[in-house]
């Protein structure tokens, strides 16, 4: 895989990167606030773990009807998604706590979902955050088969109605991850990533296998042994739980990147993207429903993806406060700040983008490929910028 470099000869792009970091850092310093999680995050952790675990305990310890069991299974799926979004996500980024051991424990909630922390770190922290919306690098837009999320992926007839059926396939994400972890680890080992991060692939395979066996024994084995439900109903319930979890996670993720206004670019033949990394992240990402406090709480701040991508080491509990700072800085530099005002507006934008990607004409693609980033940003060299401190800053891709 060719290494991509973000290189811009426009000084104002580096100035923006320095300015937005300085402005956000100033907010935390002036208010004496830690960038890590707080009691709100602790409350989210308790709530989401309870929503996931308590319904399961009820199912295996209390005789319930099929209808009640189905309701509890749906709650488990919502809880599992909540654990992933609110707890594991912050922890694996190292933003849950300033203590590494706390982040490791909370990141380990990933194992409660039957998945693997290391493969998630590579896919999400290292690839998605470093190369957002770049075909062939960002695995979050690399879904194949009936779904096309990248304008640079091959367009097939099956994609024509993806704006209608995509959400069904979104629901398969986490149940497919149960086996995908193995193929991902094999690929990462082949690419030298395991060696780079001093991960023994044999040990990781053994841990992965053990976690998944225990997970399946608990979530499938116990209900078969301890409840009145036949094995096929237990398996069906397991699939339903994962479908709910996967649909919620995939939809929330894609509403921040595969929407109108979120750019997708490709490097040139030398692996160069002629944009500063921070500017690229701003252009490739979208916020939605910033004023919806309930939504922000249940999705772990993933409706503030612009802030998350620029500051992945800051806990999501702070995004609502720093979002106006990021937006104001972007406006000062004439950069677009892609904000959908509500959940439904963002969902509608995602559906329209899915339709566009499924029925894309050659002329539309040519216009997209030839559009000038500078023209799109509307940037004009701002006056009175002489006092802006410019310094290089590199965000950690993996903790």
Beta content comes to under 5%
| Classification by helices and strands | mainly alpha
- Low-pLDDT runs of 5+ residues are 366-399
Helical coverage, percent range: 55-70%
The major beta sheet can be summarized as: 2 strands, parallel
Q: Please, what is the average pLDDT?
A: 89
| Anisotropy-based shape | globular
What is the number of E strands?
A: 4
Distance between the termini: 22 Å
Total helix count? 18
Strand arrangement, major sheet: 1-2
Q: What gyration radius follows from the Cα positions, in whole Å?
A: 22 Å
Architecture overview:
By secondary structure, this protein is mainly α. The protein has a domain at 5-33 and 260-377. It has 18 helices and four strands. The chain has a two-stranded parallel sheet with strand order 1-2. Helix 6 (117-128) packs across helix 8. The protein starts with a strand and ends in a 22-residue tail after the last helix.
Q: Secondary structure elements and their pairing?
A:
Layout: E1 5-6, H1 11-31, H2 39-61, H3 66-92, H4 100-107, H5 109-112, H6 117-128, H7 162-170, H8 173-190, H9 193-196, H10 201-226, H11 231-254, E2 272-273, H12 277-284, E3 287-288, H13 293-298, H14 305-310, H15 319-332, E4 339-340, H16 343-358, H17 362-370, H18 373-377
Parallel strand pairs: 1-2, 3-4
């Amino acid at each position: 895989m060719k290494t991509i470099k973000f290189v811009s000869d426009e000084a104002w792009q580096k100035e923006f990167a320095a300015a937005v970091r300085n402005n956000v850092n100033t907010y935390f310093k002036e208010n004496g606030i830690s960038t890590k999680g707080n009691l709100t995050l602790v409350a989210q952790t308790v709530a989401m773990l309870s929503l996931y675990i308590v319904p399961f305990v009820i199912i295996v310890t209390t005789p319930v009807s099929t209808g009640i069991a189905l309701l509890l299974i749906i709650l488990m799926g919502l809880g599992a998604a909540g654990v992933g979004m609110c707890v594991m996500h912050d922890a694996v980024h190292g933003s849950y706590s300033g203590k590494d051991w706390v982040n490791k424990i909370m990141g380990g909630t990933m194992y409660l979902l039957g998945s693997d922390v290391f493969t998630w770190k590579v896919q999400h922290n290292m690839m998605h955050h470093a190369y957002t919306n770049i075909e062939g690098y960002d695995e979050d837009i690399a879904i194949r088969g009936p779904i096309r999320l990248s304008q640079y992926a091959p367009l097939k007839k099956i994609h024509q109605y993806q704006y209608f059926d995509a959400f069904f396939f979104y629901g398969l994400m986490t149940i497919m991850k149960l086996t995908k972890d193995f193929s991902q680890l094999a690929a990462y080992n082949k690419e030298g990533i395991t060696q780079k991060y001093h991960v023994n692939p044999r040990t990781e395979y053994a841990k992965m296998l053990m976690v998944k066996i225990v997970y399946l024994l608990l979530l499938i084995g116990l209900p078969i042994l301890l409840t009145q439900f036949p094995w096929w109903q237990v398996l069906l319930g397991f699939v339903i739980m994962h479908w709910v979890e996967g649909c919620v996670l995939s939809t929330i993720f894609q509403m921040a990147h595969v929407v109108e206004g979120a750019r997708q670019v490709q490097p040139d033949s030398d692996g160069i993207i002629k944009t500063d990394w921070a500017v690229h992240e701003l252009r490739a990402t979208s916020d939605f429903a910033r004023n919806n406090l309930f939504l922000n709480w249940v999705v772990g701040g993933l409706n503030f993806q612009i802030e998350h991508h620029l500051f992945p080491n800051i806990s999501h509990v702070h995004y609502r406060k720093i979002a106006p700072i990021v937006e104001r800085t972007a406006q000062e530099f004439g950069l677009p700040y892609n904000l959908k005002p509500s959940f439904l507006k963002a969902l509608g934008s995602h559906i329209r983008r899915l339709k566009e990607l499924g029925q894309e004409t050659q002329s539309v693609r040519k216009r997209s490929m030839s559009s000038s980033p500078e023209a799109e940003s509307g940037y004009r060299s701002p006056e009175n910028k002489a006092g802006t401190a410019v310094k290089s800053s590199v965000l950690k891709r993996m903790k």
